[in-house]
Write a structure and sequence with these properties.
2 copies of one chain form a homodimer.
Chain A: E1 2-4, H1 8-22, H2 30-43, H3 45-56, H4 67-76, H5 79-96, E2 104-106, E3 112-120, E4 123-127, H6 136-149, E5 153-158, H7 166-175, E6 179-182, H8 185-194, E7 204-206, H9 211-220, E8 225-226, E9 234-239, H10 245-256, E10 263-268, H11 271-286, H12 291-301, E11 303-306, H13 310-320, E12 324-328, E13 344-347, H14 353-358, E14 384-392, H15 394-410, H16 414-421
Parallel strand pairs in A: 1-11, 4-5, 4-7, 5-6, 7-8, 9-10, 9-12, 10-11, 12-13
Antiparallel strand pairs in A: 2-3, 3-14
Amino acid sequence: MKRLTGTNDEIAKILSQEQLELSKENLDAEATVREIIERVKEEGDEALRAYSKKFDQVELFDLQVSDQAINEAFDKIDRDVLSALQNAKANIESYHKQQLETGFEDQPSQGVIRGQLIRPIERVGVYVPGGTAAYPSSVLMNVLPAKIAGVKEIIMITPPQKDFNPAILVAAKMAGVDKIYQVGGSQGIAALAYGTQTIPKVDKITGPGNIFVATAKKLVYGLVGIDMIAGPSEIGVIADETAHPAYVAADLLSQAEHDVRARAILVTDSEELADAVEAEIERQLQTLPRQTIARPSIENNGRIIIAQDADSMFELMNLVAPEHLEIAMDKAYDYLDKVQNAGSVFLGHYTSEPIGDYYAGANHVLPTTATSRFSSALGVHDFIKRIQYTQYDQYAVNQAEKDITTLAYAEGLQAHARAIEVRHDKH
Amino acid sequence: MKRLTGTNDEIAKILSQEQLELSKENLDAEATVREIIERVKEEGDEALRAYSKKFDQVELFDLQVSDQAINEAFDKIDRDVLSALQNAKANIESYHKQQLETGFEDQPSQGVIRGQLIRPIERVGVYVPGGTAAYPSSVLMNVLPAKIAGVKEIIMITPPQKDFNPAILVAAKMAGVDKIYQVGGSQGIAALAYGTQTIPKVDKITGPGNIFVATAKKLVYGLVGIDMIAGPSEIGVIADETAHPAYVAADLLSQAEHDVRARAILVTDSEELADAVEAEIERQLQTLPRQTIARPSIENNGRIIIAQDADSMFELMNLVAPEHLEIAMDKAYDYLDKVQNAGSVFLGHYTSEPIGDYYAGANHVLPTTATSRFSSALGVHDFIKRIQYTQYDQYAVNQAEKDITTLAYAEGLQAHARAIEVRHDKH
């Protein structure tokens, strides 16, 4: 792991430079993806079949995954996995129900009513990657908040496969997906955005995917809503001398095993701890099955930042604005006040980040690449709309007439002024 | 105005086709804007001065607008405008304060604490267009929600001008802007996204602008947050036989005068009303100062949709998903239940849309081009982040160990499992 030392300002400058590099656009896939989207828009299902043959080597008969296949998945799934998914579901639900919002209404003056309605988005599409990146936990994390928000129809798409991972189909059914279609890549995103003969057009698309999926989401954004464009996964750990090097190392590696581009960042005020964590990482890597991924990830993107004291640790970590933040300190909870930027925070020596990935209930779809400075974990709020409303009676509009028309004339918008004046009781 | 008649399905198909046309990307400006952003990123203030000379014909000495200029604006501003802005500000504040969110925390089982913090975004940049499109009301609408959210620093940028509109500077100061810089266009957006020697880098950018500003916002999105990319403004009016043709016509025109691309859509179950509104529009257009804008807007983009009954009117209008929605019916409030998609709703015969543009308190920065299907008016929620947190003690993590490791192994992520196992009290 690369060590960064110096004043906070010097370290801040390095972090800022590294973030710029990470947020550089990847334009390579764009031309190809534009062409695929255009064809799906023109040809619908026919284009989906052609692309499935080309990219997935599958001749598709039924685009929709049958109820029979879903029922069979319940027979095939490992009982322990089923039970773990059920428990995770209950935790995710009880956490996310606390995010439900209600509207408001007030009557600030005579003849005036103002308010805000909360409405679920009507139809949502969830993308679920295929193959080894098929994570049933991600199905729960994407679908359950939409369901709790009250979304009427949830459509899932996933690349066609001879044998679907039963846990994916079970998680989908359990979470309340209404229909599953087997189509992946940018053609799948295009189908959700424009609709085809078989697949209904949705209002918003969520879920992770490769560069083609991400590029397609970016291109259809505006016509439909999207969740976010996720970058490589990150963990930031703030640890002082009370931290256990073996725990910290294990958590850094749990992030590093995701992807060679994943980033693991330790901020500590203890050089001793930094040394011990590095030794532990090496020891644990020796026997790690995914060490071919975790080792280059740690070596290239691992960072140890040596800070002067607790305040500096938090100040620097707020600049990192990590997706996952662990606070490995004895009184971790008391330091929550100092957290300004992070997707999800894990407090104390025992709250390993995978607890959150799978189980505790908070969402694992999180803002990466320092975007937690301005955005948040996926939640119920991503599946609702806030609709404003206002009612003025004739008395109220006449009372407000002078102010409103003054502003309208000052902005040179006479028709705005007239729309108020025409309501005046003299007229 | 073009009339659409037929079954709901037939009208729905036409509306969907028109929406596709509207949401087509405009790629023309992209290459130019990319180049401008790159130069600002490299050269900072020097690039800003060069572009201001080139695009605004202004030799800039001070990028920052001085306190003296702001104080002078308070002397110059028309007293009635000042008073109207103060009243509007009070209404906007009292409405938006109702949007403030609080976090939550629960203890779902022994040794487990979960919660969600609400944190303001730290630094926000607001773009304010120059010249005739300089609207003091927009300054209030963009800045006040950020201020109420608790944003620490609000930076405003606006194109350089010999004489600033005093109402713009007054509105900025009144709303709580911390610093104003005179730089416009995509170079201004680039300065906010990357920072320069003078202008600090922000976390999120809001505010309307021309195609160069919109394209720049789209390109820097990800490095910073943005509010939305607004399309042409729209009004939808649902009116039955109780509506006043003169009021409806005036409101449709108040939208049409904004822009030749603005859209005014009337949905009614009364052909008589439709005829009367059309006659009124013609009558009112005769004397309207901005008729050279309003007339082509109404003629090209005006639509009258004849629906069968109240349910059909709402069903079709929910497909339009208008930015502004007026319900010109006697018991308008009772129909709120039927509204699924709209940015802001104006209830009853007297609630003319300009009441909302300027005054009542709900925000006027709204989702256009049917994006109210999945997004909402600008509000306090756009200036906060929700940070999740979780704490498990050793007992709790050991209790959850089997479920978590089962899922981790099922997903092939062994380091995730090990991070849990290493915390087991046997170790």
